[in-house]
């Protein structure tokens, strides 16, 4: 197992936010980067993506379940 794989084993749950779901995937590809770098670079890539490319992440966000708030 490479050091990159051992570092990135926890991606977190799918969310209702498509951009956050994209960052989960982006972090998996660039797991050796510092957090600030991967967020900034991920945001730049997200802005350059077409609506069609983003559609996958919008679909994931729609499928993710809604969390109930505790009263």
Automatic annotation (TrEMBL):
Pfam families in UniProt: Protamine_like
UniProt record, GO biological process: sperm DNA condensation
Record's GO cellular component terms: nucleus
The protein's name in its UniProt record: Uncharacterized protein
């Amino acid at each position: 197992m490479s050091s990159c794989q051992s570092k990135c084993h926890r991606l977190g749950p799918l969310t209702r936010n498509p951009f956050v779901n994209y960052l989960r995937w982006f972090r998996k590809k660039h797991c050796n980067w510092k957090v600030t770098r991967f967020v900034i670079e991920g945001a730049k890539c997200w802005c350059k993506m077409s609506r069609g490319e983003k559609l996958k992440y919008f679909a994931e966000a729609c499928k993710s379940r809604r969390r109930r708030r505790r009263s």
